[in-house]
## 1
Amino acid sequence: MASIKDAFEEAIQDHGALTKYFIFAIPVFYCTSLYTNADKNGLSAFWAVSAITFLLLFGFLIECTTNVRNGKDYVLPSYNIFSIFWAGIKGTVALGPSIAINCVLATLICNLISNYIPEPNTLMVFKFIIWAVFGSIILTGYLCYAKTFKIIDAYNFKAISESSMDILIAVLFMIPQVLIANALLIAPVTYVIWVFFGIPHPIATFYWSMVLIFNLAMCGHYLAQVGYEAIAAKENSDKII
């Protein structure tokens, strides 16, 4: 069974983990600085840097998932920024149509049911279910793609139809565990920074940026476990039968 504990420990203990989290936190910290100073510099620089940072971090996430999914003895990608950036670009091209189509369909269905469900809380529940279902389709395509880096695998309809609900359930279980892990990482350090420097402070912002990168590694690890259990295990059982 997929374990957030294993993902947490291996993401921390990986070779050169702290250095990599520090390096990849720099563009995130820079984005926050640009946003904070938007009144002086405008938002154009922020959006440009954010786009580049997104591609870099998406590539980082994919590489982490791929490493674990393919049984490597490490989680984090190498220091090759260009390789990671390329992985982010290719991943965006591969999954972009799936994300766009599923988001459009989810939005259309939510708008449709809003005409028939006037009660706000009930409507919110149905919208959550709809977005969760379409989100699981995107995630399943992501896991199929991360296994091979082949764009066509992001649209493996057999795997998506058979495994998306299992992946949805696994992700729903993941969310509270990730929140607990983040509480353990963020609360004590943030309290110390608050006592000595106050909040907000650049040191706190940079630490939170590092925690964000750690979360990408941890979630990428966990999703790789889920992908193996929900997709690969079923494919292997079908072959045996």
Note: The chain is about 85% helix and 0% strand.
## 2
Amino acid sequence: MGLLILLTLLIEVGVLLYLEVKAWHTLYTPLTFLMLPYVAVLLLTVAVAGRWGIVEFYYPSVVYWNVGLLLFAIPSYVMGFALQKHGKPVIKPIDDGNGMSKVATILAVIMCLLFIYRFKVVLGTSTAPLGSDEFGMDYDGHGLWAHLSKFNLPLLVLCVYYADRKKWWLWVLMILLIAITFLHQVKGWVIIPCVAGLAMRLYSGKTHLTMKFVFYIVIGAVAVFLISYILSLVVGGSAVLGGAIIEFILRHFLHYVTSGVLGFSMDLAAGMPDKGSMEVLFAQFVNIINLITGNNEIISQVNGVFVYTGLNYTNVRTMFGTIAVYTGPAQFAFVTVLISTVIYLLKVMTIRFRSVYVNLIYFYECALLCMGWFEYYFFHLDAIEVPVMTIIVMVIVSLLDSKTA
């Protein structure tokens, strides 16, 4: 029965992918970003489940993705085929001008200098060791610096998108911005803007999708974990870099990759003891409203129920798993279709407005979908704050770029 469920998902994904390309004439769509990484991680998880002390996989958890992907595809096909029916284009190239603007480049330089200064201050005042979560919180985890760190993300996406062999300064800025983001010790927030920038490059043809490209992406993802744990265990701790530490890091890498799929599998098998209210899925909006109205209640997006997978503890449930935890059947359908509709409307906007900044917002949201194998990211403030920061960058560039020409 488990293999039948898995086979059903693979067939469904194949059919949906075919229809998606027919609807939009491209692979780089929200549904594709959501389902293909999940399938890859699911197959890896199924391959390792029940081995080396890892828990067995509960196949009925896949059914939520069967249903979720079908629901998510509805707005895609409605919009895509409706545009074609009325003779409208479903794909247009990004209008990236003559490269990254001078103003955006200057903004990136200023932000790098600000955060280098911030690092120097925190390094001298924080009692937390470098590379720890506590150091990351002191560095940019709250207040003005937390919001400024989100201002860095669209600048990082722009650097990834525009970098080439001739523009060495963009590579320098990109590395500095990645290093700055690294210090917060949240691996997803390093990966997501890089995925967004690379997706824009693939969509625009600056980079081509090849096996070599995929190989480099995998190596880059592993490098993120190696550097992150080396920073916390060796630089910030007392560990000595060696074979045991590398094995420990790789084991944790396997845990990170499988934690969402296994976490939801175990959660569903246990009867979802973490069931909660749907308002958690819109926590950032609820918290903003509470702040405006003087209500001190803050909704936490952190799932308090941890399960042990045999590798480590996890409290993440994949995108559709988390939606299922906080909804019933009708609410599940509503939330899924709503998210899909919003992101596909963004896609339509990239056709209407070819601006690199509109595309940046769209591909950033697609990058959040790309992490759906891990968790539901749309209840974090970043899902709306990064688009707002992108608009601010766009406004600053439009006001000042002509004066620096």
Note: Residues 12 and 93 are 29 Å apart (CA to CA).
